[in-house]
Task: structure prediction
Amino acid sequence: MNTVLITGGCGFIGSNFINYLLKYHDDFRIINLDALTYAGNKNNLAHFEHESRYHFIHGDICDEQTVNSIFSTYNIDQVIHFAAETHVDRSIMDPLQFLRTNVLGTGVLLEAARRSWGNKFSGHRFHHISTDEVFGSLSSKDPAFNEATPYSPNSPYSASKAASDHLVRAYFTTYGLPVTISNCSNNYGPFQFPEKLIPLMISNAIQGKPLPIYGDGKQIRDWLYVEDHCSAIDLILQYGKNGETYCIGGNNQPTNIEIVTQITSILDELLPKSPYRPHAQLIQHVTDRPGHDRRYDINISKIHNELGWSPHENLYSGLKKTVIWYLEHLTWMNEVNQNQGFSEFLKANYTSR
Ligand SMILES: NC(=O)c1ccc[n+]([C@@H]2O[C@H](COP(=O)([O-])OP(=O)(O)OC[C@H]3O[C@@H](n4cnc5c(N)ncnc54)[C@H](O)[C@@H]3O)[C@@H](O)[C@H]2O)c1
Result:
């Protein structure tokens, strides 16, 4: 039995990954360390409360004492580090919180792993989850990002993730700590907090609220269905090479406005009696985000050639699954929407900018 420390397991990707790991493997014991910030939701994993292979710890990755005691109490074999502050808009409002969690928190975890594992690295791995946003913005003619693309982050969020990636790499070169890094494109799917583009659009459209699109809506992203991200991490954990980075993406290039239009037409199809049909009438353009990256594209040849991974869902199939999930989990969505801090954030971000 491997004991794996998962940080940020109550967030969007972390909770999907814990579901994935417990579904497809029976040789992992999971310790989930999460501070339960506004983005963490313990209910995402309530069905595992009585599962003997799952243990939740409410704590902060920046707290050295808590992190060190987890390593010594549970004899951690592997770390999969998801915990972070993740929303670009929030990083523009409060950058220091991003530096604290994303940089200092990663440092505390690396140091605890180094001390706990000593020089015995066999069977150990520290996998760091990062983002393609560290590479900056592409022009329409630039080739896609790959593992050799120089870092050029543009927001406090991406700069803090870039700093944490460098720290992880430094622990490999300086101490030989067995690390891997993955830089992934935008994820979407079940359990995503409705401040991010896709769940915000689904949630607002169902309620007949405006669908706010930044600027002209022609920003281009690559989108990955979250379960495909989970399968990629699983492969890296099993077969990835220490010291290596892997780029992960969904192999698509839609503009934001195309994504929102697809969501509205899926909702038109699934909700034929909705008074808000056609849902596309709810689209409203709002002032753009400062420093908004224009285009991301990611080359996934390395993980495909070396580990045999490809995304299973295409954009339409993944979006349809996602819209159906939110329609079937309206209580989950309403609870999140009623969080007072969240409504204040929406007001500050979309109306007071
Ligand atoms: N969502 C995406 O599209 C995307 C894409 C690429 C990479 N990533 C990366 O994947 C990881 C997970 O992203 P997500 O979208 O699931 O994030 P999320 O915001 O949904 O969840 C983050 C989780 O981390 C926890 N957390 C925050 N600060 C903490 C702290 N100090 N100590 C312990 N726990 C803390 C939160 O409570 C929450 O459960 C992040 O590292 C992010 O940078 C996300």
